[in-house]
Amino acid sequence: MSSKVKRIIYVSHDQLNAEYGGLAKADKKSDLVLFVESARMIKGRKWHAHRLHFIISSAKHFSAELKEKGFTVEYLKAENTAAGIEEIKKKYKISEVIAAQPSSFRLLNALSKLNVKFVENDFFLTPRALFHSWAVEQKSFKMETFYRKQRVRLNLLMKGDKPIGDKWNHDADNQLPPPKNYSWPKYLKHEFDQIDEAVWLELKSLDLIGGKPSGDFATTRQGALKQLSHFLKYSFAEFGPYEDAIALDSWSLHHSLLSPYLNNGLLHPSEVIAAAIKVFNKEKIPISSCEGFIRQIIGWREYVNGMYWFLGEKYKNVNHFSANRKLLPLFSDPDKTEMNCVKSTIDDIHKRAWVHHIPRLMILSNLALMTEINPQEFFEWMREVFIDATDWVMVPNIIGMGLYADGGVMMTKPYAAGGAYISRMSNYCKPCKFDPKLRSGDNACPFTTLYWDFMDRNKDEFVKNHRMSQQVFGLKRLKDLPETRKRAQEILELLSAGKV
Ligand SMILES: Cc1cc2nc3c(=O)[nH]c(=O)nc-3n(C[C@H](O)[C@H](O)[C@H](O)COP(=O)(O)OP(=O)(O)OC[C@H]3O[C@@H](n4cnc5c(N)ncnc54)[C@H](O)[C@@H]3O)c2cc1C
Ligand code: SF4
Fold first, then answer.
1. Is 72 within 8 Å of 5 (Cβ atoms)?
2. Same domain assignment for residues 381 and 464
3. Residue 397 CA: which ligand is closest?
4. N or C: which end of the chain has fewer CB within 10 A?
5. Taking the model in full, what pTM does it have?
6. Ligand 1 atom 26: the closest Cα is on which residue?
7. Is residue 206 situated within a structural domain?
8. What's the mean pLDDT in 40-45?
């Protein structure tokens, strides 16, 4: 046992970076770096294999790199994080443990009980206190207001005090449907190495979703950097226009696929931003694409993290619509539905534990919202199947944005939509047995039927919301409202039975 060790630096599996957090001021001579792989993280739930593999293999690669650099490293398997830390404290007879502020309330509570000393969590661009000072001054927590402040504070895409391109937001130029006869960029494949193989050997006997990862995501910083360069070279210029499109012939379109690495520390948002701005300044990248991408990182990502901490631990349990339907069978088995959009989305998730923001919001969450699935059950399912799932990002996105389970604390209206939206933004509907234009009858698109029924069920509340009242008035024009209501009841029963 090394008697030189004086301090333990605990590194969680989502803070894998030697330049930030607890490791930023680490001393090789006197610090021990500790990783704990808790049984809780692996057992007891039907996780997606790609998610578990990504999380564990990334941490194992990172711990091996630290060892190579001369650090004393312990990578420990334990019942839970606290038990792992206690074990190492005893083994080395040291009491001082430091860590970066954790990214979830659960870990914060667990580490606080052990008197761990926290350093600032600098894996984000906005300190929690700074976000808090913004939020307490707001009447409504509009992401756009926060984002503009970020642009000025971080001096990004600014000309003096004006936005470059004369507009803060280029959404109007974006949001195009998938183009016809278009060549989508090629994918970057990441090769398995020995560590990846060894992690897979340990995982493969567990009852998990999905098989062996097929190289869509890297598990090292070098791989993450390659993905960043690949995105900037092949996708950045067209990121904006097709940001919201869904295409049958491309699973990632022009999206960056960077969320897993940003969320586990392999990439820092500041380097992603710096690299993007460098390319924007050197090459002909349209402002609508550059602004769209920068907004995701300095706006949405920072905003949801800020809101997670600002809204507090109990926010996760809200249930505005008292929604209590059980999770639909189609979420775990794509063969339980004939809805082409949902089937393809679940198929894609099974293949690689990732789909982009529109299927997450306008297909999965939209369906859960309008069928009144219990928000917490839906949340737990999303957590199990996405490679980039973490509490801080999912609570605001799912509970607040996707399900409107907070009754409008975060969003000004629910993101509910019928088949017309999916039909416009994707090419799912043509081969589907349902018709997105129909509300009633056997061929009616379930999204369209459920949309009008959802409006009808909640009309007393929505009519008071100026962003919803038009749709509520639209109900009066529906000649087939009684049939739509009846069909909605049938659809809900069929969905629960896995038969639609
Ligand atoms: C219902 C719902 C659930 C979501 N769950 C997750 C999740 O579990 N983990 C996760 O990382 N993201 C989540 N998101 C946000 C977003 O869908 C993903 O970050 C994105 O699809 C990841 O793919 P990408 O890296 O190619 O993103 P790009 O489209 O290329 O965007 C670039 C980056 O911007 C950030 N970003 C974009 N939108 C958001 C957002 N709404 N919130 C936070 N960051 C954002 C991400 O870091 C992303 O990597 C969710 C969004 C919704 C609507
Ligand atoms: S018709 Fe409806 S169910 Fe079918 S793909 Fe389109 S939106 Fe989905």
1. yes
2. yes
3. 1
4. N
5. 0.97
6. 257
7. no
8. 86
Q: Which amino acid is at 427?
A: N
- How many residues appear in the chain? 500
Confirm whether 227 is domain-assigned: no
* pLDDT band with cut points at 50, 70 and 90 for residue 41: confident
Per residue in 126-177, pLDDT (tens digit) is: 999 999 999 999 999 999 999 999 999 999 999 999 999 999 999 888 889 9
Q: Establish if 219 belongs to a structural domain.
A: no
Sign of CA dihedral 234, 235, 238, 242: positive
Among 261, 283, 311, identify where a domain stops. 311
Atom 6 in ligand 2: which residue has the minimum CA distance? 429
**Number of Cβ within a 10 Å radius of residue 237:** 19
Is there a domain that residue 197 lies in?
no
Domain finish residue from 75, 99, 119: 119
Same domain? For 269 and 169 the reply is yes
Q: Is 72 left (phi over 0), alpha (psi -120 to 50) or beta?
A: beta
Contact 437, 257 (CB under 8 A): no
User: How many angstroms separate the CA atoms of 342 and 351, rounded?
Assistant: 14
Range of the domain at 38: 7-119
Q: Answer whether 365 contacts ligand 1 (Cβ < 6 A).
A: yes
